[in-house]
Amino acid sequence: MGKITRAIEHVDVDELITRIDRAKNAAHARKLLVIWNATVDPRPAEEIAIHCGVARQTVHNWISAYNRFGLDALLGPGKGGRRKELMSPQEEKDFLAPFFERAEKGQIATVAEIKLALEEHVGRRIGHYTIYPAPRYFEWVTERSSFPAIRYTMVIRFLVDR
Q1: Backbone φ, ψ for residue 110 (5° rounding)
Q2: Is-above-0.85 flag for pTM?
Q3: Is residue 81 part of a domain?
Q4: What is the enclosing helix (H) or strand (E) of 110?
Q5: Could you tell me if 41 and 99 lie in one domain?
Q6: Which pLDDT belongs to residue 157?
């Protein structure tokens, strides 16, 4: 048997149980369950790992982070979200309004056009990776032009019937 894995009691045991019940997702609940096990019933990391359904090293990593920095170290913002946004959703809607108006008239817009307008709006250069996911995000129809002069320019047709 290995060394006993213990957690420092940064949070009361009842608080841990409440947080487990109200966890945002399964990943947070699993982390809290590991902390609860190491707090209430300290035992080797292998046993905690088997009980919680994670790897032994994961138990070591989570307990170490919890012991050093507390509960906030484990329960960060999570995956996904809009952490690196240039504008709020309402600002995006306002920024794209002229392009939607053009679409209603049957005109098209290119990604390069939108990128230049966005750079002017934000006041700095941005990478192409910021614009190219936009058509899928806003449910636009995208297609590559067959005309040789603009073959490598993505053309965006806005869906007018929103």
Answers
A1: -100, 160
A2: no
A3: no
A4: strand 109-110
A5: no
A6: 46
